[in-house]
Amino acid sequence: MYKRILAFIAALALTLGLSGCGYNTMQSEDEAANAAWSEVLNQYQRRADLIPNLVNTVKGYAKHEEQVLTEVTNARSKVGSINMTAADATDEAKLKQFSQAQGELSSALSRLLVVSENYPQLKADQNFRDLQAQLEGTENRISLARNRYIEAIRTYNTTVRSFPNNITAKIFGLKVRPNFSVENEAAVKQAPKVEF
What we know:
mainly alpha; de novo design (two linked rop proteins); 8 helices; rod-shaped
């Protein structure tokens, strides 16, 4: 009888201990972070899909700007060669490599849009304006998706690092996930110069 009561108390203590350990919360937040990462990838893919159309439209007008068009195409190719999954987003080195490739593509696209300023006929072309508007909208969507991902990671990391959840996290091997970082933080801190 005494053993049965002790077994019941131990089972009850284990059940109560596990229900308050935060494991389910961590799993839920990990899935939310994975879903947010998928949306980031979705928006980057949308941008990558728009680029060939934009490049082809510009090619018709800006034949002398082959170097810029080549840079955009190469940057898009580099981005396409990096396959990231939600599991890869937990690896800080892979996340940095992905972020760097996306930064190079953003930079090449910026140079392409600057080139368009030299071609008034191009700026007046409806296809170019439509593509530029879609690209700008996509950049906004990317920013929003990245913000949602950053928030999901913040929530997850806070849970994993909080007591007593950190004990459960160590038991199950759950670690703090790396977050997006700015490719060139020093350049971002400087205000852009506008000259006329």
